[in-house]
Amino acid sequence: MIRRLSVLVVFALVFAVVSAQAANKVVVKPAGSSAGPYSPAIAVGDLMFTSGQIPMNPTTKSMPEGIEAQTRQAIANVKAVLEAGGSSLDKAVKITIFLKDLNDYNTVNKIYSEYFPNGFPARTCVQVARIPLDALIEIEAVGVK
User: Which candidate in 42, 44, 125, 144 is catalytic?
Assistant: First the structure.
């Protein structure tokens, strides 16, 4: 009974803090970002939550061919969104990578590791059935401001 009550109290406190901070959320929209029905990133307190970034060049609105080029562009897009909100790849604490084909995992890892010379954030990488605009990769991040 006391354990259940403790869990409920902790849950209530976390909910209260998150709710209070959510009331102070800031939408981050870097230049050239998509005009779709979502925010490229939301800053809540000292955290930034990016939406998934596909490898579309924000200037040309085109996607490069191949997993190597798409990985580099998707990371560049995540970097731009994080920096627009006062964060950076160095301050990323969690990355999620969505791959069209998990056979690209090693190739993506090699490129990904180039962007985090000071240590890796926590990360999840999964294969999905389909990514918007038939991209090969989509990346989202959580960063500290």
Answer: 125
